[in-house]
Queue: 2 jobs
Job 1
Amino acid sequence: MEWTDAQAAKQASKGNQQAFRVLVERHSRAVFRLAFRMTGNEQDAEDVVQETFLRVFKQLHTFDQRAAFGTWLYRISANCALDLLRARKARNEQQTPRGDEAALHWLDHVAARDPSPERVTRSRQIAGMLEPALNRLSEVERTAFVLRHYEGFDIAQIAEALGVGAGAAKHSVFRAVQKLRRALQPAWEVGAG
């Protein structure tokens, strides 16, 4: 049977393990992608995915069937990632860098089919600056930025995922963009020169 998210969530809340498995299989990649972008670390992202689906399983009875399951799931996932980042900060841990290949993953979506060597070099330089700049954002700013610019959420969805008002979500995205622009300014100046 092909369930919608709402149907699968309803069945899973009644104890149907196959329905829960459908939700996990359908959404685990997206949750991992969000968690990886927020934490910058593959192992942490895997931990966030596990914690997210554990919380989903425990909280399915609270899911409002009128809401979008994906938005509800992203809110839980974002909160799990934020909890991990806060715990890391409290322990004063250093984040493991992604490495060049993983950090450049977002460049796979750049439009040019055959970029010039100069463009590839510049793109690598920008990617090398982007990850540390993202890490300097507050947890809320980074989450808002990732949801908006990587996941394509609108402001209302970001607000719901973060559990804040639309104005606060919009302001978080704006602050993140401003901070990233300042951090990446040297790369733009070199490219313009």
Job 2
Amino acid sequence: MLFRMSDTPVKQQSTAAFYGQAVASFAVALAATAIGIFNLQTDSWVRAFLGIAVLYLVTSAFTLAKVIRDRQEAGQLVNRVDQARLEKLLAEHDPLQKL
């Protein structure tokens, strides 16, 4: 039996524990930052500016993570197409065929 890489799909999925840890870490970091900004001994406009800066940083981080994930998924799709083409060429190639 001929084994092909495309016969076994690779599934990269994180565990529930890893997902939970990532969500909890994000929540703790965001809460700690919000509490720190709220408790600053400064004018309210400075706290508001820092709050908006944190929100901007968080949304930018989510956008960057999505872009990186999308590029990785697109690369995997191209690699799978290239692998399928290579397997087809190898399957059709007959080394004993006369030139």
